[in-house]
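Quick one, T. Sequence first:
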Amino acid sequence: MATDLPAVPGAVSSREIRRTAETIAAAQEPDGAIPWFTGGHTDPWDHIESAMALTVAGLWDEAREAYIWSAKSQRSDGSWPMQVRQGVVENHDADANFCAYLATGVLHALTITGDTGFAAELWPTVRAGIDFVLSLQVGTHGEIHWSANESGTSGEALLTGCSSIYHSLGCAVTLAERMGDPRPDWVAARRRLGQALRHHPEAFLDKSRYSMDWYYPILGGAVRGTAAQERIARHWDEFVVPDLGIRCVSDAPWVTGAETCELVLALDAIGETVTATRLFTDVQHLRDSDGSYWTGLVFTDGKRWPEERTTWTAAAVVLAADALSRTSAANGIFRDGGCD
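Structure tokens:
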């Protein structure tokens, strides 16, 4: 599949983006799974994020194998195990956000490739995954509990996870319409979840130390407009480290590449593209000579930590570059799925 590649002047060239995607493909296992790094574990969410980056970079054969892995590894109830290492399940629990994200990936792939046949092939997998996720929407306000195990629903609702689910539900609704299988129940469930995200912070476990809880309601599309602008401004100084990126946790001297690139996507989604581009440029200090990206940097001692170059960090870079450069047909996947 011939494709134009993203480039962000002053940050990364199209050739560098291709090299980054190739480091993701190099970690892919023979069955199609994309682990965090070679020999590491695979989780269903980061696996899809990596597949999306491969698609942006024109590595469609590798992306296709990743999506086929998702279809083959789905369980009969529509869920996936939380963690797998080289085909062996290490954590049998199911994470609701992980199980929803395939909808985002399949819509992304369809938008870029136009391959309706492949989307139709994956549609039953997407549908079963979303139905499983919505079986966990048992909260008072429409929130979705974060996980399930053999004993049933466990854990409280998480703001970051539910924000991502909100986005995935929007993608799932769009896919349902394109597949000729509309799901008004999904529309209603997404509307309830959006109301919880916007108006009922008490419904979610307090994890406000984490930057993801700051920007994910915007990235997922539940919060936009003036409310989004105010949310960004309120915590900017708490998380943003000038010239380096953003902290993963507010009280730790650690900037991380994936979180920074996700904030880039969130800022771009609300029209703050100049600021987003500056942040994207700042975080390029995590790029390695082979095109991969270190997960983070402890800026008080200048040490990269953990000592891993993760596929999902590289994937976040590729997706952020695509959004900023408006390159692929799916560059607006996070920009165009706003509030109901």
